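Example 3.2
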Amino acid sequence: MTDAALIWSYLASKPLLWLCATLFAYWAGDAAFRASGRRPIANPVMIAVILLAVLLWATATPYSNYFEGAQFVHFMLGPATVCLAVPLQANLRQIRRAALPIAAALLAGSFTAVFAALAIAWALGADASLMASLAPKSATAPVAIGISEALGGQPTLTAVLVLLTGMIGAIFVTPMLNALGLRDWRARGFATGVAAHGIGTARAFQVHDTAGAFASIGMGLNAVLTAFLAPLVLRLFL
């Protein structure tokens, strides 16, 4: 047992272990998702987060040690966000045709996401730092963290809130849109991307290619608009 503890102590200090653990956790989550028949409740990201949280808790591993390995995955968020230009360019003709509805939906979705979160937090007595962390929760993670830092929020808390927003959105978006009778894949995808950023976009691609493309567009445009809206709306409450 002593030898095993020493071996684990040595491995736990190495970034490669936590990079592999992160990739394995997502693989396990994706396998469970496929085995469930792609049910939204079996979201692979949610499963991966639970597995990693249990592992860190069981081994008493500090988050800073884990992030030394996970930062390699975190780094790829930036290039992945830049790649949103690809679906924008590929669907430029359809975007031009529906420019007015897209602009209206984007403004309504972005403003509602920021205002509703801040209004609830303000009503419950949240302080300025917490509200600044909460304001960009519906933007994609690299943008949301940058906004949070600029507003005086807590980037780590913002990352958690972004993750929760995406997972909840990915789980509920398909049954909710089905219940509303919304059949246009462009509208479904765009709404998903605006409300649930990258995790919701991944879910949209699993449902339909057109929905995924427009979810990517919604996520990218929402990230840009949230950078302008979040500081303005935050001032209303502070």
